[in-house]
Amino acid sequence: MLAIFKKELKTYFLTLTGWIFLAVFLLVSGILFSTQLVFPGNSQYTMFLTGLLFIYVFVIPLLTMRIFTDEKRFGTDQLLLTGPSNLWGIVLGKFLAALAVFLITIAVTFIYPVLLSFHGKLDWPMIIGSYFGFILLGAAFIAIGVFISQVSEGVVSAAVLTLCAIVITFIIDFMQQYMPTTELSGLVWAVILIAIPLSWLYTSGKNWAVTAAVALVLAAVLLFTWFFGRSLFIGLIGKSMGWLSLSRRFGSFSIGILSLDAILYYLSFSGFFLFLTVQSLEKRRWS
User: Which alpha helices (H) appear in 152-234, and where do they start and end?
Assistant: First the structure.
C-alpha cells in the first residue's frame, strides 16, 4: 500500500492533475475569501465555509477522475491486478494519495482564519469543527470518485459521473419531499433494494442455488414485515434516501459539535465505496 501511495502522490505533482486541483481550489476559495470577508470587512467566517463546501462539487472530480482510468488507458491495470500488492492495498494507496492532496489544500485555507483573527474575534471551536467535517466529507466524496473511476472507461465519463453523484448527495434532501410515502410504494422500494444485492451476489458467484436460497430468506422476512409491521413501509423511500445525504450530517460540525454519529457515518460511507471498488477489481481479476 505504501508503494502505491508514494507512486500516486508523486504522479499528482508530476502531472497537471494535482496542480490543476490545487490551482482551481485555491483560486476559487481565495475569491470567496476576498469578496465575502476581506472587501466587506466581515469577520463571519461561516459565510466563507459555506461557500467552500460547494467548491467540493466541482474540484473533487478533477482529483479522482484519473485514479483508475489512466491505469486502463496505459494498460498498467493488468500489472496491478497480477502483482504482489493485494487489492485493498491498491485501493487504499490510491485513496490516501488523493486524500493527501486534498488535505494540502485544506491546510492552506487555514491561513484565512489566522489572518482574520488579527482583525476580529473568531469562534475557533466552530472553525475547527467545520474543518474536521470538511475532511470527513471530502474523504467520502473521494471514495465515491475512486469507485466511479474504477467502473468508468474514460477520464471524461469518470469526471462527469462523479460530479453527478456528488450533486445528488447535496440535493437528495430536496428530493425526499417529493417521494411517495404510501405503504405500497415502500414495499416496491424494499423489493428493489433487495434485488440489488441479490444481483450482485449472483454476478459475483454465478451460483443460482445460493442466490435463490438468500432470496427466499429475504422474501420471507419481507412478507413477515408486511403483515406484522406494515407501518415500517410508510415513507421508506425517503428514509432510505436520507442515508445518502452527506450534507445534512455536516450541520453539526458547522456549529462546532463533533457528533460521533456523523463521524461514524462518514467513515462507514467512505469504507462502503472503497469496499465496492475492491469488489469491482476482484471481479476484473477473475474475469
Answer: 155-176, 183-205, 208-228
